[in-house]
Write a structure and sequence with these properties.
A hairpin with a 6-residue loop joins strand 1 and strand 2. It is globular and about 55 Å long. Helices cover about 80% and strands about 0% of the residues. The protein contains 7 helices and 2 strands. The two termini are about 30 Å apart. By secondary structure, the chain is mostly helical.
Amino acid sequence: MENEKYLNDLTEIKNLMNRSSRFLSLSGLSGILAGTYALVGAWLAYKTIYFDTSTLGAYKNLVISKEAVIKLITIAATVAILSILTGIVLSIQKAKKNNETIWNSTTQRMVINFLIPLVTGGIFILFLIEKEMLGLIAPLTLIFYGLACVNASKYTIGGVRYLGITFIVLGLLCTWFLGYGLLFWAIGFGFCHILYGSIMYFKYERN
């Protein structure tokens, strides 16, 4: 009985330490919704690129007008904003349900480590857009997002690390197959988010 009590105490201490060092309020449902937003965005981008009269040529030699580029940036920004807002709202709800504090030193470290690669990548991609090097945008968004996930994973659920590695691999493949950037973008931000979110939801959140 004493050994069992000792093991239970150790388990409780381990859980408390894990909660104090990791942000565990990430919502799997937010991943599913973010993936859904991304797939809708990819469909709208596909229509803009391949059916808009302002774009000309085959996929490898596609010429896109500035109006189409602005539309694509608007679609991507809308998807990102919706995903971020959804993630924040659902994480707050999960934290309240578990009687946890949503904004603490662990959350701050996670956000900072996530934003460093993400903001760096965003600025770099803006430079590429200004230089009209549009073919590298899709692979670089995947790669920098993957690096952001890996960098932040030590402060949250371990599965985020594997999600980040998946994005990096997809980004490298996308660099090789430049003409299929939208497809890789949909696979990464769409299907991978939905798969990851579903796993996290059924593993940690479903009652």
